[in-house]
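Sample intake sheet
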Amino acid sequence: MMNGKIKIMLMLFLTSFSLKGQNIEMYFPYFSGKNYQLVIFQGAQQKEILKGTIPRDGKFTLNIPKEYAPYTGMSRWLITGTKEGGGLDMFIPGKDFSVECEAAVPNEQNIIYKGNTGDKDLNDLYRAQNNIIRRYEIMQQAIKLYSQSDKNYNVFKEEAEKQQKAYESFQNSLKEKSDYISHFVPILNLPDGKGTRLFEKEQDRVDHIARYIAEDLDWEVLYTSGYWNRIVDTWVSIHLQLLKDKERFTREFRKISSRISIPKNYTEFVERVAYNLNLYGEDEYIGAIAPLVSSSDKITNYKGPLAVFIKGVIGSKAPDLVLSGYVTGAGEVSKASRLKMDKQTSPMFDSSLIVFYQSDCKNCTDFLQQLSEHYADIREKGIRVIAISADRDSEVFKSKAQSFPWKDNTYCNYKGVEGDNFQNYGVSGAPTLVWVDNNGKILSRGSSFSLLNNTN
């Protein structure tokens, strides 16, 4: 009977909590009469979940709606509708608590939290960490100023190494803890180029940061941190601009994918990665991770940037080329409405290379020059070249296209990347090359002439 009573009481408690949501008792008398809003973070989104007006006595309750309660993560409480603005960023610990401040300018000294030590813990940890970093940087400056023969050089060197070890020990202690704030501190460091170790060389530093994001970062904490886009952007940027290793990028993408179990969170991660790869025109990277994305079973709707993973990806059937309303490089209106990418429409070729380009794009010009120089060899290998232009000006298109050895197979409808074929193949940047076999299957996709090295 006792166990039964305990279960009933527990059920009543949980039901009561879910009905009332999660409460934050506020007391800010100086801001009475001001409007406010409460924002929480969900991946890339800042969600306004509450708004209201502070009563005359300054006492009010922020009741987090039950669909978000209990919420654990960072939040932003803002004073709105005034020139002065104001408010505060605060940690919400997944339970009820209170916060008060009677001053006109809230700060660390005059804000009082009850039932929530998160903000104090964060400030203390961040100060302790930065004290180590400051001492390390001072020693590094001294090492640069003094020669190795100076009697103090080794002292500075030893102290710098001591601070390196202290920093690594500090970060390891955070990793061993299970609380939100301890896992939030390393997230704060990443946009500033700091990982969980201190390095003298930039290459070592960026290599470490990329590995940390892939292998150790707490992605659930990141989701409610307000730093989602900045961290994902940092990881992609390091790979594309510094590491430049597609195989490593793919391996790390796989590791991150395995560590994000919640479908909604995973979808937002992949969407942001796709956005960045599209922005940089890195179709080879998109093609490399597309099989991992499509086989994850975590994404249900491939809309927006996610469309690149299901349109024109390696291993899929190549869409028919839409030619209705298109003009050829020879200056004629296309006679065909569609062109199927298979051996029935091109029996004399073993495969087709579709080139998406734009005339005033330098990378496109360089590639097209290479393609023209090797065109005879490419035809001898049984490869048909088809070019689709993103030009919007007819004179620009004709001037460029007439010089192509494949001008009869060059097409444009002056709609840019909004044209049917760019959309059907998920192409957002030029040049993009799609290599298709005579069964209509996409064999490879990329943005450089190296793609043709696989055509032997």
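Comment: Residues 350 and 382 are 5 Å apart (CA to CA). DSSP finds 14 helices and 16 strands in the chain.
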